[in-house]
Amino acid sequence: MLERLAAIPNLQVSQNVQLARHTRFAIGGPARILADASTEAALAAAIETVMSAGAALSVIGGGTNLVVSDAGFDGVVLRYTAGSIDITGEFASAGAGAMLQDLVDATIEAGLHGIETMTGIPGWVGGAIYGNAGAYGQSIHERVESVRFFDGHEVREIANDECEFRYRESIFKRRKEWIVLSATLRLEPGESAALRATADGILKIRNEKYPPTMRCAGSIFKNLLLVELPPEVRAQVPERVVREGKVPSAYFLEVAGAKGMRDGGIRVADYHANLIYNDAGGTAEQVRRIIDELKRRVHERFGFDVEEEVQYVGF
Questions:
Q1: How large is the angle between the packed helices 192-209 and 100-109, nearest 10 degrees?
Q2: Domain 85-194 belongs to what architecture?
Q3: Which is the most buried residue in 17, 41, 107, 309, by most CB within 10 A?
């Protein structure tokens, strides 16, 4: 299989790569093979090769929202790295491997409004589509015109409504064999200086909460839609914590005593109950234990389950 993969044009193949080098947590054991496809043809050929060999396959993006097992992944970890960005009129198209920040900056420079509040969100465009990323009242699904993807057999393109976007959800999260290749966004005219000022203000706040050097995945748990909470839980939520119809998971976690928790090298921030970070030499097992304990505490206190935003590889 390794020889066949290495023979595929535009596929970069490496063996025994420590995935800790490719995750924001800086945690994770080795992938038997890491393969980076820079073209659609290379991606399709790599998937066909791995499937025909009967090997395990995990497709990842920029690794910002991943918890990778300490044992690593005994198979092929595949990334689609095509990252071109094209802006034509009010449309911005980007490959899944483009940095989300680069796309945000390009739209601001072009005087296009719609995703400037996503400045500072780490990761790639493909992951942003996959998880319907957003911040400060904007989610990327509001701007998606269409998404190209590989369904395991052929390249297809679907419109926004077919992506089945919900809060931090999309069809791609449920159909993991569908690999996002690119997305086209429809934006609105704006004034570049004003958009940049908005983005810079948000970036300052974000960097104070999540310093760029912090080894973390941002918020661990999804926020909750107020209308979807059980009535007895809604009655306990102070009005002041509700924002745009959502209740921060941090509220429930703080009540459950999350702040400052530690398990080995993994900590919950003292100032933010939904921020877990690798303080020093933390392990994936420690991350899982803290996550499981927080879920247990919230369920015991409030009677419902909080759900992770992070994805798991190798468990």
A1: 150
A2: 2-Layer Sandwich (3.30)
A3: 107
